[in-house]
Amino acid sequence: MTINYFLKRIKDKSNNVILHFILELVTNLEDSIKKVKNFLDKIIDDSYTKVTMPPIEIVTKGVTAELNVKKLHIIGNSHAHTFTGSELGAYARGNFQKTFWDSYSLGPLSSVDLETTKYTLLTKLIEKYEFKKNDYVLLPLGEAECRWYALKDTVLPVDVSEEQLSLMLKPFLDAAMRVNINLMKLGIKPIIWGGHASSRLGPRADKDIPIVGESKIRNRLSLIWEKEMRNFAEKNNFPFISILTLMLDENLETRESFLVDACHLKTELLEGFLLAELRNLSISVVEEKQL
Q: Which candidate, 251, 278, 265, places its Cα nearest to that of 140?
């Protein structure tokens, strides 16, 4: 017999509204924990067989009172919605499933766009959805910059130097760092994302997911992005999370099992990964229901 069996029997025998609310909350917590546990037992691929992660703690401040914990808001382009399973093309707040954070898309953008043409939209979004002081924000930047924005209009040799790749990324790295600093000045706590790899596919002129350069060059760019953002996070005492090294094999090729298309990560993989990383960083998050 499970806890749900006993909860159902209690609910069937009681007309107390508050008791029903408490029992519903406990049931939802149990379902959420089971969902995370199922992910931890899942095999991702042959070379990265099992994800070993610490237990997850869901922190609450009582049942009848408002939950007084920090929230995590993920903001960017369509990559933000992969964290919640929302429709990738949805603008602004995603129609997310039950999860532990929310997601917002400002449309296609690079870090340079987010600092310039999209920055006003970012601040209006923060105001509209009433982000609270000391809430956390994660900007899932890096993938599009290394697949498209930093490489477009260029033709690079296979043996291109690290110095040249770093120079190509510098404007995008600088912009990403400045946006995170600005968020901190607004009283919001940045969690720095280390980027992720795109597909092994070669160059293509796809209108939705354009690709420039060979995959190994793109992955070298991604490693530079991760290194620089990690250094930035350490310098400013920001939490840092990265999935990149898990995505790359010993030949610097992308493990396609992490992706649903040429660049977007799998939501079910991200949920377990991010929960565990937040737990490692001692960051508590509150459970959200589907909108």
A: 265
Taking every pair of Cα atoms in the chain, the longest distance, rounded to a whole number of angstroms, is: 73
User: What pLDDT, in 10s, does the model give residues 118-160?
Assistant: 999 999 999 999 999 889 999 999 999 999 999 998 888 889 9
Whole-angstrom distance, CA of residue 186 vs CA of residue 130:
12
How many CA within 13 A on the CB side of residue 227? 11
**Alpha-carbon span 44 to 220, nearest angstrom:** 23
Instruction: Read off the tokens for 10.
Output: 């209690």
- Token pair of 208 as six digits: 């939705």
**Structure pTM?**
0.76
CB 213 within 8 A of CB 197: no
Q: Do 255 and 247 touch, CB atoms closer than 8 A?
A: yes
Residue type, 63: V
Query: In the structure encoding, which two tokens stand for residue 64, read together?
Result: 């009848």
Label residues 240-249 b or e (16+ Cβ within 10 Å = b): bbbbbeebbe
Q: Which residues of 18-51 are buried (b: 16+ CB within 10 A; e: fewer)?
A: eeeeebeeeeeeeebeebbeebbeeebeeeeeeb
Half-sphere exposure of 264 (CA within 13 A, CB side): 21
d(CA 106, CA 221): 24
Four-residue CA torsion sign, 71, 276, 195, 236:
positive
Closest by CA to 115, choosing from 170, 177, 190, is 177
